[in-house]
Amino acid sequence: MKVQAATTFLCGLLSASVATAQGGPGGNNDFLSDGPFAFHVKGKGGNSSIDGYLTTLPTLATEWLLQYEAERYPKADNSSYRFYFNYTGGMQSQGDAAGFFVTDYVGASTNPVGLKGKAMSLRFDFNTNVGLALLGAGTAALSGFNADTKAFLAHYMDDSTFVPGHGPATQDYIYQYLHHLKLPAADLVKTYNFYTNVLPFQAIPSLNHYTASGKLYGALFSNGAGLLVEIRENAQQAVAQKGFDPVTWGVSTRNDLEEWAAWLASQGVKHSKILMGVKGWVLCLEDPDGKIVRLYTTEEEHEWCEPDKDDYWLNTPT
Ligand SMILES: *[C@@H]1O[C@H](CO)[C@@H](O)[C@H](O)[C@H]1NC(C)=O
Ligand SMILES: *[C@@H]1O[C@H](CO)[C@@H](O)[C@H](O)[C@H]1NC(C)=O
Ligand SMILES: *[C@@H]1O[C@H](CO)[C@@H](O)[C@H](O)[C@H]1NC(C)=O
Fold first, then answer.
1. Number of domains the chain is built from
2. Ligand 2 within 6 A of 103 CB?
3. Cα-to-centroid distance, 85 and ligand 3 (Å)
4. The CATH number of the domain where 262 resides is what?
5. Cystine design at 159: which of 84, 129, 201, 210 (Cβ 3.0–4.6 Å)?
6. Residue at a domain's end among 149, 167, 185
7. Is residue 204 part of a domain?
8. What is the pTM of this model?
9. Residue 66, domain extent
10. In which residue ranges of the chain is pLDDT below 70?
């Protein structure tokens, strides 16, 4: 599968506006549409093989399922074997036009946003790479045809690394992806300076938020690996969260925590000793609002154990 950022989008809402922005043929809600196509599915395993066509199957709900039928030819007189490729002409995935597959289109009535046919989307079983293809669920999975007419999904996971029983190695999976965190601060600049000077976060001034009169009310930084954090001026929330530990950051080893403890001491930052967590070691520190920030080892772990108890640093219930 192609690997690309999260690609499921609202069909007919977002994608229609893309089409409009691209000046699609005929104006509103119009995509370029090729087809009909039949989907030939061929595969070979150890002792088995499949060779057939994809068709759709009505369910009791409004969505239809995509299913494989072991047929030698697509049934010419059956519209559920007929698919169309809708695209704007403006989106590409690694050089191939990206759009989405639609079925039940010719002669079909329009959906609430004025589009004909059922777009194909994927619904993944949580924490697996097992996806159910649904048609007409209101979203569309970005897909297309390669130069050799093989269909592709411009998708976000590398399923070659999937191990049954373990979550897939996804970065951008739509509901595992954390876009940004927001932390309250009584004094925005003070807290922001703490995160970007004492802690090693990278300021992103271009994303800062200002009121119409030019007052800074939200400031952003990044962990350098795609996660954004916003510090928002909100004294009431900052006071309410004093002593709470909303975020735990990962560090590699226990030795890293020792270096952190020395650095924090040199900066006069109040922090805990290195404590035992359930499966790693943890160091806790205070940010300028008295929220607890935790650093937790992710590479070096110990046997799972009863963690240390510490009312102040670990919020351990008694
Ligand atoms: C194929 O079938 C043989 C005989 O039943 C079996 O021993 C073998 O493990 C099978 N191979 C695969 C890859 O399933
Ligand atoms: C079309 O083919 C599907 C799958 O074989 C079948 O379930 C469906 O009843 C057929 N529809 C018509 C109108 O023949
Ligand atoms: C697909 O494109 C055709 C042609 O622009 C349009 O009539 C139809 O509504 C589109 N359907 C969907 C689901 O996008």
1. 2
2. no
3. 9
4. 3.10.180.10
5. 129
6. 167
7. no
8. 0.51
9. 3-167
10. 1-30, 106-108, 112-113, 124-129, 155-162, 164-177, 318
